[in-house]
TrEMBL record:
It holds the Pfam family PIG-L. The lineage of its organism: Bacteria, Bacillati, Bacillota, Bacilli, Bacillales. It comes from Sulfoacidibacillus ferrooxidans. The gene is mca. It is an enzyme of class 3 (hydrolase). InterPro entries: GlcNAc_PI_deacetylase-related (IPR003737), LmbE-like_dom_sf (IPR024078). This is Mycothiol S-conjugate amidase. Its EC number is 3.5.1.115.
Length: 264
């Protein structure tokens, strides 16, 4: 029995306001661009929260990291326009900086209480072998902040409580939801490539092929597991090659003292 069914929570594509918290300026596109573009068709209000400034995300050497920060800000806004992002919020922590999870929680609680989303999305910090501290810290802090945003007595200095029913993690090793993004897969690739400082280089042919193969694999695995992935949603549009994005979607209640969440 899935607690999300018991609570009658809407499926991922039915939410009307979502906040996507990303460690770096391009993570939301890599993890969820296709799904977000579909959500825009469904008139969902989409907020991007970008935690770090991405100053170290380059293979080229920039004389001044501030120059790269500025370039990446423009790339992020252009990519967001392709997906229909409603608003951007920057936390401006240093990429790879020595901030802690605790430093992130109050600012995120504040944002969640201001925007009042019905879903939060972020990177899965429990992905085995994830070594980048920004991904681990941001994923953990987002989950914690989503949980505390509804608390009546915590963080009273940053707004009134707002309960967020569910959270979705991309970049997950334990997916329970597959979204068929076939109609928007090329838009996803375009949105990713908009981050030219990261992808407009000699590696792009290989990387783009990897993204394509991964999306096809995620679609096929999702379809094969329809029985165990009850939230899989597909569309019929006559396209032959099909692509998916996968997520771990949990009720907020599953983020605390809920051993079966890994199987949810
Ligand atoms: Zn990242």
């Amino acid at each position: 029995m899935n607690i999300r069914h018991v609570l009658q929570l809407p499926n991922l594509l039915e939410v009307k306001s979502i906040i996507c918290v990303q460690p770096h300026p391009d993570d939301n596109e890599v993890g969820a661009a296709g799904t977000l573009r579909i959500l825009k068709d469904h008139h969902c209000d989409i907020t991007f929260v970008t935690v770090t400034d991405g100053r170290h995300g380059t293979s080229a050497v920039f004389q001044n990291p501030e120059e790269l920060v500025s370039i990446r800000r423009k790339e992020r806004i252009r990519a967001g326009e392709l997906l229909g992002v409603t608003r951007h919020i920057e936390c401006n922590f240093a990429d790879g900086g020595n901030y802690t999870e605790q430093d992130l929680i109050a600012p995120l609680v504040h944002i969640f209480r201001e925007i009042k989303p019905d879903m939060v999305m972020t990177i899965d910090p429990w992905m085995p072998y994830e070594a980048h501290p920004d991904h681990v810290k941001v994923g953990h802090a987002t989950a914690t902040a989503a949980m505390f945003a509804g608390n009546l007595t915590m963080f009273q200095e940053v707004g009134h409580p707002h309960s967020i029913p569910q959270i979705a993690f991309y970049g997950t090793s334990y997916p329970n939801t597959m979204i068929d993004i076939t109609p928007y897969f090329e838009t996803k690739m375009q949105a990713i490539y908009t981050h030219e400082s990261q992808f407009a280089n000699e590696d792009w042919p290989l990387i783009s092929q990897f993204f394509r193969m991964q999306a096809a694999e995620q679609y096929n695995k999702g379809i094969q597991s329809m029985e165990t992935l009850p939230h899989a949603q597909t569309v019929q549009d006559g396209l032959v090659d099909r692509y998916g994005e996968v997520f771990k979607v949990l009720a907020l209640r599953e983020l605390h003292f809920f051993p079966n969440a890994i199987n949810s």
